[in-house]
Amino acid sequence: MNSHHLTAALGLANRSVPVLPLRAGKVPFGNCPPCRDNACGGRPNMKNPGPCACPRPCHAWAAATTDPDIITGAGWSTAWEQAAAVAYHPGGTGLTVVDLDHTEAVAWARRTLPATRTVPTTRGQHWIYRGAMSSANAVRDGVDIKSTMVYARWLGPGTGTMTTLPDTVRTLIVKQPSPVRPVTAHVLAGGGECRHRTPAYLERGIAMAEQRIIAAASGVHATVYRTFLAVLAAHGRCGCLTDTHAARLFAAAQTKGESPRHCVDAWSNARTALGM
Predict the structure, then answer these.
(1) Which residues pair with 187 in a beta bridge?
(2) What is the pLDDT of residue 142?
(3) Could you give the dihedral angle defined by the CA atoms of residues 33, 65, 174 and 167, in that order, rounded to the nearest 10 degrees?
(4) Going by C-beta distance under 8 Å and a sequence separation of 6 or more, which residues neighbour residue 268?
(5) Closest CA to 166 of 141, 199, 129, 120
(6) Contact predicate 90/57, CB 8 Å
(7) How many Cβ atoms from other residues are within 10 Å of residue 216's Cβ?
(8) Residue 261's Cα: distance from chain center in Å?
(9) Is 22 helix (H, G, I), strand (E, B) or coil?
(10) What is the pLDDT of residues 162-192, one digit of tens each?
(11) 94 touches 130 (CB < 8 A)
């Protein structure tokens, strides 16, 4: 048994950090025989996130635990014998890791992100913030976000004071809405300028859409989608709708508990429904 990795894992677990062993190649151990192909029902997905009742490390990030009896138990003994590293579930302990994979990514972070605790890696750095969020790979060149439903290697405590997760990191996973298809010479039959290009008309439409979302008492998902659909149907084909307008609608939706990812999906689905 690799006592060094096991000792590190137990120390983290004692600080309420969920841990799991990694084999060579920085990959988790495969499903144990009773849970092959997630037969136990503990598959880590949005409907049933978290580990199954099996004490073995069979579901990657969802196997991470703080229970010392599981960590030192017979179910994990073979894994620790073969372990090449210790990993942890950042989101499970309320953290987010900005994984910077090369020197250019580190330089970008120093210019762009608030200083926080940093941990050196083989090729770059981990910047660790207090607060959890959705995870995403390749949010920009050499930058991954590791928080919920993923694992990160434990490479030591790092240096510096941990900062609260800033919006500049949260927005990294939000894809900008695709540019609205421009329409040239969109003129009314009477020869006048398209009413959608009138600033007051567009502003009134966006303000009404924001209010509709904010006023939703139930069915927020459906309200957001229908509102996005209505806005795109009215303003999406004449070139007057901008990313700033979309950001206002996204912000209104997020005040009602919608995640950035839900906003992106609803916007994309609305565009698809309209053939845009």
Answers:
(1) 193
(2) 94
(3) -170
(4) 177, 178
(5) 129
(6) no
(7) 18
(8) 8
(9) strand
(10) 999 998 998 888 755 444 444 333 333 333 4
(11) yes
Q: Is 258 helix (H, G, I), strand (E, B) or coil?
A: coil
Rounded Cα distance, 82 and 76, in Å: 10
The residue length of the chain stands at 276
Count other Cβ atoms within 10 Å, centred on residue 113: 18
CA distances in angstroms from 244 to 59, 173, 179, 203, 248, listed in the order given: 41, 17, 11, 11, 6
Lowest mean pLDDT among 51-55, 71-75, 214-218: 51-55
pTM of the model: 0.62
Instruction: Give pLDDT, residue 38.
Output: 63
Q: Of 208, 266, 263, 213, nearest to 235 (Cα)?
A: 208
CA distance linking residue 126 with residue 1, whole number of Å: 28
Q: Record the tokens describing residue 238, joined without a space.
A: 């004449």
Helices (H), the chain: 3-14, 68-71, 74-82, 103-112, 167-170, 199-214, 220-235, 243-255, 260-273
pLDDT top residue among 255 and 130: 130
Name every residue whose Cβ is closer than 8 Å to that of residue 177 and which is 6 or more positions away in sequence: 243, 246, 264, 267, 268, 271
**Tokens 């991470």 correspond to what residue?**
64
